[in-house]
Amino acid sequence: LTFAEPGVCTLHVHLRCPCPDGMVCSDLVISDANMFGKNGIDYIEQLMRKECRQQHFALMFERT
Fold it and tell me: How far apart are CA 54 and CA 64, in angstroms?
């Protein structure tokens, strides 16, 4: 799934991880480091504070 901004991602809108015990939401979450209105590292840290069981994250950085 792709989301135009972090606020509409299903992982972001829940207060806690929505996955059943022993399961993860996806194989990999890929996030832009500089999203509209949100920093990618902050976004991943926020998911971890929600006890997201996702194990693999990747950040994309724009090369200038």
Answer: 30
Give the residue among 31, 26, 13, 32 at the shortest CA–CA distance from 54: 26
37 contacts 6 by C-beta, under 8 angstroms: yes
Q: Which residue has the tokens 């792709």?
A: 2
Q: What is the pLDDT of residues 17-59, one digit of tens each?
A: 777 888 887 888 888 888 877 888 888 898 888 888 888 899 9
* Helix extents (H) in 1-64: 10-13, 40-49
Q: Could you tell me which residues come within 8 angstroms of residue 40 by beta carbon, excluding any fewer than 6 positions away?
A: 31, 32, 33, 34, 59, 60
